[in-house]
Amino acid sequence: MNWFYIRFSAFSDSISRFFRQPITSLLHILGMGIALSIPMGCYMLLDGADQFSRKLNNSTQLNVFLTTEASDETVKTAQTQLEELFDGDIKFIDRDQGLSELSKNPEFSELVANLDTNPIPHLFVLTPNQNDPQRLLSIAQIIENWTFVEEVRFDADWAGKLESFVKLSKILVMLVVLLIGLGFVASIFTTIQLQITIRKDEIEVARLVGATGRFIRRPFLYYGFIQGLLGGLCAVFIIFLGMKYGLKSVQPMLEPLGIFIRKPSLLTLAAPLILSVSLSLLGAWLSSNNHLRKIDS
Amino acid sequence: MIETEQISKRYPGGHQALKNVSLSIQEGEMVFLTGHSGAGKSTLMKLIGGIERATSGSIAINGTKISNLTRSALPYLRRNFGFVFQDNKLLLDRSVFHNVALPLLISGFSKTEITTRVRAALDKVGLLEKEGLSPVTLSGGEQQRLCIARAIVNKPAILLADEPTGNLDPGYAADIVAMFRAFNRVGVTVVIATHDPAMIQGLGARIISLKQGELQE
Fold it and tell me: In which domain, by residue range, is B107 found?
């Protein structure tokens, strides 16, 4: 009971101090919320792009064009070698079939009719069972060296590049989160220093009558906790508003690109809250500890 | 009860506040520390109370050497003392009651016990009627009595008072001295630092004089 009473006294005191300066506190919380919601929002946008690039990679195919001189025997050899090398669906498109498909296109029909010989090579379309761009690239490099192969086209090359770009962007967002985190700690450190200055006399008296470091530190940790919690809730609220209203205007522009921003999971929403509270507690602990060390030396 | 052995205190910047002070104060004794301003009285009080550390020498309270205590153990030592200061060190943003309650809250007393003890301490110094007021509404003498109530509420074994009557007129000062005498009679060890000769007269307490940081008993 005493344990609870001591902590409750410190907590209620911290709350009353927090709301004693409502405008300053509100602006601080808003600043924290905005600072946290920006990288979280970017992360969600990138997550949508990531899904898109994965989807593209899943439809990755290798187009293997044989030389125009390739005989039926060569086609058989190619088929056997491909089956040994490649794990997935192998579809053969005969050069005549290719030409007839081309002639169906009104733009090329006249051109095809005037041709003396068929210039289209035999084609193998390889669709992998598992999406592994690196593995597919290495297979393409092997096939390219076969004498009867004219060209290998790796259609999803640019999708791989997009995936790399998304990955890089995610790392950048993480860096921004890290920098914002450091700024967060510094900001809370300064706020708590200000609180310590305001409560300097109280700390001195408490210390004289036998207060432990833990007792002196406690109200400042509570203050940091309250600030972090409210700042985190503000960030969640901003993300929620962004999803509800902002997304409506952005989604139609992203849809043609195949990018769909998913609704944030509970964990995604909890992340800014956990981050905000942890960093605020860290800032408050560093600040109060710094002061205690100074007065004890 | 309080033993100091060859203690010296030199502050950063080179000021030597105390030089090789050795003294012994028995349990239940009332002692006056006298000397001019800058003689080292306040420094000695701070060293005894574990508020500051001696540069050299040792201080023992009930056989426990302060220099052997870790930083985290010092607060528990300080709970054996009641401190009274010339400038009161009252917290003006809280009521008379809550000023006195602070040491008990720190020591982990229950809410009921805090209320009982605070009222008893306020009653002892004649401020029970004013428990809900802010300290700023009290007179100088009342503020000093409030400071004494805060010092005794924890029932300390040792009362350390640094110039407790420094800012008071003779009438209030005599009241305060009488209060210390009464606490001493019930077994509390009382150490009072003062440069006021009128305060010491007629009490029959031991007087320890300091001059430029050195003992002149």
Answer: 94-149
- Asked if residue A32 and residue A15 are part of one domain, the reply reads yes
Q: First CA to last CA across chain A, in angstroms?
A: 34
What is the chain B residue with the closest CA to A13? B94
Q: Are the beta carbons of B75 and A296 separated by less than 8 Å?
A: no
* Partner residue facing A205 (CB), from B75, B77, B102: B102
Q: Which domain holds residue A258?
A: 9-56+160-296
A interface toward B at CB cutoff 8 Å? 1-3, 5-6, 9, 201-202, 204-213, 215, 296
Alpha helices for chain B (secondary structure H): 41-48, 74-78, 96-107, 111-124, 140-152, 170-185, 197-200
User: What region, left, alpha or beta, does residue A24 occupy, with left being phi > 0 and alpha being psi -120 to 50 degrees?
Assistant: alpha
Question: Looking at the domain assignment, is residue A164 inside a domain?
Answer: yes
Q: Which of A16-30, A77-91, A227-241, A251-265 has the lowest mean pLDDT?
A: A251-265
Mean pLDDT of chain A: 83
B208 and B111 in a common domain: no
Structure confidence by residue, pLDDT tens digits, B164-210: 887 777 777 888 888 889 889 999 999 999 887 777 777 778 999 99
Query: What pLDDT band is residue A217 in, cutting at 50, 70 and 90?
Result: very high
- Report the residue from A1, A201, A210 with minimal CB separation from B106: A210
Number of compact structural domains in chain A: 2
Q: Does the predicted TM-score (pTM) go above 0.80?
A: no
Report ipTM for this prediction: 0.85
Question: Does B108 contact A at CB distance below 8 Å?
Answer: yes
- List the beta strands (DSSP E) in A67-143: 88-93, 123-128
Q: Residue B87, Cβ neighbours under 10 Å: how many?
A: 12
In one-letter notation, the amino acid at residue A219 is: P
Q: Does residue B88 fall inside a structural domain? A: no
B39 and B71 co-located in one domain = yes
